[in-house]
Amino acid sequence: MRRRRFISGLVGAGAGFGLTSASARAAGPRVAVQEPHEWQAVPAPECTPAAQLLGVAAAGPGLAWAVGEQGRNGSTRGVPLGLAWDGNAWTRLDLAHLGFGGSLISVAGTSDGAWAVGTDTGGIAHLLTWDGGTWQEADFPGRAAPGTALTGATVGADGRAWISGRNSDGAVLLRGDDWAWQAPPPSATTATPSGVRCTASGDVWVYGSALIARWDGATWTELPAPAGLRPYVSGLLPVTADDIWLTGYDYGVGGPPGKPPGVTLKHWDGSAWTSVSAPFTAGMLTGIVDDGQGGPDRIAGWDFWDQTRAHHLRWDGEAWVSERGPTATTPVLPLALASVPGAGGYWAVGTTSSSPYPPATVHIER
Percent of the chain at pLDDT above 70? Predict the structure, then answer.
């Protein structure tokens, strides 16, 4: 399904496998406790309304990237938006040389390289690489071909990039050292995953509303897709074989214009997905990060009934509890979350409106 980013029309089975050292731990959630974090708003450069940030990644305290779209007005698409953090401030990049309208939807990187993916107004997928100062177009198999989509980017512990998406042969995972599509999953599903994630052991997961699968470098292991009427999966955190967290939202059976989605938070225990209670129910969970050891840490969220603060979640060792962002004079809709290697902390990015119209602009906090 297409990525819902603004609420009003912006598109934006495996119990036997091992992830890290799954056999060394008992079933059930990890007990590590994450300390409270005091979120602070960070000034953002001026962007063309309506603007939103859809992806964020950090290489360390002095280098980070955020991507999205600016200049959207309802169904009229805008142009790609890119910001870079130098340790002191965010700067808006000039991306006019890319020469296409549309949006960038995901970014990943290290101090040695970074990658971003997006889609133009004609539905063509784009892969970008970081040249140290801005983004440049990169070639990949199936570029501009019908049936090719790129939806997410991540980097493994070895520095290799992985891209989720789909090509005309049904492959859903693109490997970054030689830009080779990996074999399609055995289910031969027609689904396009919404994102991708690497584990410390080197496994690569693709995830979406109709496909959740692990690639170990040779074979696929698939899990059942989570139940839902109109679900969107925004994040996946594989801790061990019997401890996997999934975040997202579900629009249910519909309703009046402006009806909010419902929060989706699910846990895989090695045999089935179960729904987990969240501190709020109307809104979205839009990303999940680990604690640096592979365990649960933070989730970014948007609370429909209290929109002037982000409603992040913190793992307290037993459950996900509320952790609020700073109060703003506008709505706050976080759409992506990233941990900061080295110094610790987080970046949460998004927008100031649930509708794709001016004067919505970007929102950043850490």
Answer: 90
